[in-house]
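can u do me a favor
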């Protein structure tokens, strides 16, 4: 067994992170016992969900790397626990660790639907597609009970507002009753991330996400309901999942996906250390190869944050993946660019108290 003790492995059951280093904004760990370490049975780390009363819900960006300029995220942190998740560093802004805290100490925003309704109704608002799930998954397990993402979709439906969803969660199928009519109006598309077809590797990298076969079944179900679906082969992990590019695209096309996209593994801030720790534990014989290829694409660094480079890297290896991806998409009839969502249907629905409500 590795240097990680058997006792620690038991306590990490169904979690990806091997550590819980403090937030980068808190260089010294305090000695205060908040009950977290002793609150659960010794063989499991529980999921804790706290509520945040948000002041706003639509966030805007000016990134040239992204196909959208606004997004909403019903949750902070993600119980799916994908070890490679680029959003992990955002947990540090909450004073929490990007490690195990990111997977186990979640923040829910129950007032998100009300805020969304208010912000869409503002006179200064100008419609453009809203993305959901860009930072953390809107269909992670807690959504089953909280239904915040569903309530936000109901608002977008009522406003006839375009939306693009990104998820690994099969729970998106629950909302077909909302999504299918929106799809008929050209107002929605869904991206399903499938990183590998190997169920064992998936369970270790993405411990609480649906297995690959279940995600492909979700693509099929959405497609059969008339909802356009993109298979997202993201992230591609050099030396670990890169050999699966063509097989992933073929599986997505067979399930009914009409489009595809890809992103190379990204290791911003704390993600690099967490990823390398995971590699040493789970794939020690491939660790050096994976990191060598990543560094070749980023000028010798683990990660290059520059616009235009951070998503895919550069150099011979990155170009080879891009060529393989394009060739497979052409052969399978998968689009790399989907038709634009409609923005001309947007309308503010009557609100309680409006004068029209008197008639």
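np, heres the sequence
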């Amino acid at each position: 067994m590795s240097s990680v003790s058997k006792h620690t492995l038991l306590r990490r059951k169904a979690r990806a992170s091997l550590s819980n280093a403090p937030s980068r904004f808190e260089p010294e760990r305090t000695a205060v016992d908040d009950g977290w370490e002793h609150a659960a049975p010794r063989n499991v780390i529980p999921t804790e969900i706290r509520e945040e009363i948000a002041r706003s819900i639509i966030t805007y960006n000016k990134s040239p790397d992204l196909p959208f300029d606004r997004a909403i995220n019903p949750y902070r942190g993600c119980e799916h626990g994908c070890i490679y998740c680029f959003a992990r560093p955002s947990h540090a802004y909450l004073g929490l660790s990007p490690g195990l805290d990111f997977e186990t100490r979640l923040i829910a925003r129950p007032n998100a639907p009300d805020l969304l309704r208010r912000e869409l109704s503002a006179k200064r608002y100008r419609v453009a597609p809203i993305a959901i799930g860009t930072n953390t998954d809107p269909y992670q397990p807690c959504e089953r009970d909280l239904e915040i993402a569903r309530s936000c979709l109901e608002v977008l439906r009522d406003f006839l507002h375009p939306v693009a969803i990104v998820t690994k969660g099969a729970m998106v199928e629950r909302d077909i009753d909302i999504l299918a009519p929106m799809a008929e109006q050209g107002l929605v598309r869904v991206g399903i991330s499938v990183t590998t077809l190997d169920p064992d590797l998936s369970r270790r990298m993405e411990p609480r996400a649906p297995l690959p076969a279940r995600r492909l079944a979700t693509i099929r179900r959405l497609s059969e309901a008339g909802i356009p679906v993109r298979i997202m082969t993201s992230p591609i992990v050099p030396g670990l999942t890169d050999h699966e590019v063509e097989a992933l695209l073929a599986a997505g096309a067979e399930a009914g996906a009409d489009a595809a996209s890809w992103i190379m593994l990204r290791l911003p801030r704390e993600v690099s250390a967490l990823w390398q720790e995971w590699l040493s534990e789970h794939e020690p014989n491939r660790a050096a190869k994976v990191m060598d290829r990543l560094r070749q694409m980023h000028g010798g660094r683990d990660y290059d944050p520059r616009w235009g480079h951070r998503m895919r890297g550069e150099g011979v290896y990155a170009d080879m993946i891009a060529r393989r991806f394009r060739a497979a998409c052409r052969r399978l009839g998968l689009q790399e660019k989907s038709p634009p969502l409609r923005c001309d249907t947007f309308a503010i629905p009557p609100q309680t108290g409006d004068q029209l409500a008197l008639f």
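Confidence is low (pLDDT under 50) at residues 1-11, 28-42. hope that helps!!
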